Description:
The chain is mostly helical. It contains eight helices and no strands. The chain has helices at 5-9, 22-44, 51-67, 69-81, 85-90, 93-105, 111-132, 138-155. The longest helix is centred in the N-terminal third of the chain and has 23 residues, at 22-44. The chain is elongated. The N and C termini lie far apart (39 Å).
Amino acid sequence: MMNSPLIASDNTSAIDAGELSPAVAMILHRWHIQDIVADVVKASGPMSAGIERLCAGLEAYWESAFARRGMRRMVEQTAHDHKLLRRVDSMGKPFCLLIELELKVSGWVMPGKKARIIFDQARAIMLEEVETGRRSLRREQLLSMIPQIVASEQAG
């Protein structure tokens, strides 16, 4: 796994987004995603499967993405300029798969639909934080809703 000092520290001031080629932007974003996945696994890995580990993983996702928000903005600008936003967005699939796997390992049936709901909301929070530069109050709202989302899956 590549842990770029540029990405880890979010020291993007030395790079002009207008100077990034689409290929370089995609490579940087791939490293960006890998670093965030590593942070999520590190934070939640030692815990037992369950809602607590899922919530710890989401908190690590938000914190890691927040720390690297300058890189995300730069990659998004380059992707937008070159009509590659769909490719950038698709690179976030590992997070949805981690949520689905967590729900599946925890014993919940048909976790895919609920994983997508949780991921979409978590991603929206992350994007809000990238845009505003502030941590969202919606973090706690989503974390408190997860037991209800999971319970509705078990009942459904």
